[in-house]
Automatic annotation (TrEMBL):
It comes from Aedes albopictus (Asian tiger mosquito). It holds the Pfam family DGCR6. This is Gonadal protein gdl. Residues 1-45 are annotated as: Disordered. Belongs to the gonadal family. It comes from the Eukaryota. Residues 24-35 have a biased composition (Low complexity). Signal peptide: none annotated. InterPro entries: Gonadal.
Length: 217
């Protein structure tokens, strides 16, 4: 995401400022027209409230259907109150965008960590081949390869531990971000059961983000 066109910025900035000023004037004109329109003042609050009620009902009904498909032990841990709170928080579409962003970061992170692990494995294989090309004595080579296997096994365990710790930290970052965003059910925790429940809630949110709400139906 490097920005390399700094010389074009002054003229671009002037264009943006001019467009912003025009948009601001148009917005002010629209606001003044709306403010002086009695019908708009009378109808907009009612329509907005009705829209939100319909959307809340839609979200809650979809969550209840998803909840019903979970294993019974998780159905018992996810209460109706939690589903209702989650539906209410999702009236703000920003939550969908936050979750999508977090999932994209997670996928990129997982891909990177897989590449790190593959590089370690490739380095181990390369080291064995180098020894094979140097040592002519079969018995000596067998002894060296046995030592390499012990070394590589230890190294891989250490690598896997680092990768797991890195993923654990990413989970905590996700939990903290969603908690700060006010999404019910999310808080920093190491408890496997609670993390599994949060994974189900994340899945609910992602599935809801792909559904189209039609208020007139």
């Amino acid at each position: 995401m490097d920005i390399e066109q700094q010389e074009a910025l002054p003229s671009t900035q002037e264009t943006i400022e001019a467009e912003d000023e025009g948009l601001s004037q148009d917005s002010q004109a629209d606001s003044q027209q709306s403010a002086t329109d009695p019908e708009a003042l009378a109808e907009e609050p009612y329509q907005s409230q009705e829209f939100l009620q319909r959307k809340l009902y839609f979200l809650l009904e979809q969550l209840k259907k998803m909840h019903a498909t979970l294993p019974e032990q998780f159905q018992l841990r996810i209460s109706y109150e939690l589903l209702a709170g989650l539906a209410n928080s999702l009236l703000n579409d920003t939550i969908f965008e936050i979750v999508k962003g977090l999932m994209e970061i997670q996928h990129v992170t997982e891909k990177h960590l897989m590449q790190v692990r593959e590089k370690v494995e490739n380095d181990h294989q390369l080291e064995v081949k180098q020894w094979e090309s140097k040592i002519q004595d079969p018995e000596e080579l067998e002894h060296i390869i046995a030592l390499m296997k012990i070394k590589h096994t230890k190294n891989m365990k250490e690598t896997d531990m680092k990768l797991v710790l890195h993923l654990d930290q990413k989970v905590k970052d996700q939990q903290s971000t969603l908690e700060k965003a006010g999404v019910p059910g999310f808080y920093v925790s190491d408890n496997p059961m609670e993390i599994k429940i949060q994974m189900y809630l994340l899945d609910f949110i992602l599935r809801l983000s792909r559904l189209k709400f039609e208020p007139n139906k």
